[in-house]
Amino acid sequence: MLLLTVVAVIDVIVAPDTPASRGIGLLLQGGTMLAVIATSREAAAIRHTRGAVVAAVLVALALGVALAVIPRWVGALVGGAVVMVVLFVLVRGVTRLIREQGVSLQAVAGALAIYMLVGLMFAIAISIVAYVGPKYFAQAGQRSAGEGALFSLSEETYFSFTTMTTTGYGDLTPATNLGHAIAVLEMLVGQIYLVTVIGLLVGNLNRGRRQAEQSPGA
Fold first, then answer.
1. Does residue 217 sit within a domain?
2. Number of separate domains in the chain
3. Residues 6+ apart with CB under 8 A from 209
4. What Cα–Cα distance (Å) separates residue 81 from each residue in 26, 85, 113?
5. Which of 26, 79, 131, 215 is least buried, going by the fewest C-beta atoms within 10 A?
6. DSSP symbol at 146
7. Segment 72-104, tens digit of pLDDT
8. Looking at the domain assignment, is residue 43 inside a domain?
């Protein structure tokens, strides 16, 4: 799951801002949903049915985006919905895993996947706000206003992760109060998550390993 999330995020950042690449990005984001369905605890028949339906819908939507039949902002909404569903299911799965098996490498990997999906979720939210609202960034974009959004999803994803990690290079800055609010919220969510959730998981993972090594039967 973590590997699929990393691939989806890297694709969004490095792929050109074209309908075809956005369609591929939507498929990669949908792949994380299919992975969640495949690893769920539902009966095999239910997993297969859900996976087939979701895959068919995602392929149809990705084709619509790639062929520019579906507008860019609609594709962003679909991608955001996919990421939200995956986040919800993944949080439940990681929580259940920790309750039943304690802190493990699998749980830490799941928590890191959640962190990256949160960053991608903020990027999609920024993309939608920038498209339907006033100018989002104070800097000039690479395209004219007549072409829709002034910045690509790649740039918005880059800004999202530099904000969430509080790196703050300063090459992109929000121009509106709404943009400032989103940036502050993302910084708080990112830092609190790293300090609390990831910190506690890694700490308990190391503690569990030390206890296992010190036990008489080890």
1. no
2. 1
3. none
4. 11, 6, 17
5. 215
6. G
7. 878 888 888 999 999 998 998 899 888 888 888
8. yes
Burial class (CB in 10 A: 0-12, 13-18, 19+), 17: middle
Which residue range is the domain that position 12 belongs to?
2-208
β-partners of residue 174 are 137
Q: Phi first, then psi: what are they for 126, rounded to 5°?
A: -60, -40
Q: What residues are paired with 137 via a beta bridge?
A: 174
pTM: 0.85
Contact 10, 50 (CB under 8 A): no
Q: Take residue 109 and report the two structure tokens written for it.
A: 């990997």
In a domain, residue 45? The reply is yes
Alpha helix (H) ranges present in 15-152? Answer: 19-38, 44-66, 72-101, 105-132
Backbone angles phi and psi of 17, in degrees to 5? -85, 75
How far, in Å, CA of 58 to CA of 203, rounded? 38
* Helix 44-66 × helix 19-38 angle, to 10°: 170
209 pLDDT above the threshold of 60 = no
149 within some domain = yes
Spatial contact of 55 and 33, defined as CB atoms under 8 Å apart: no
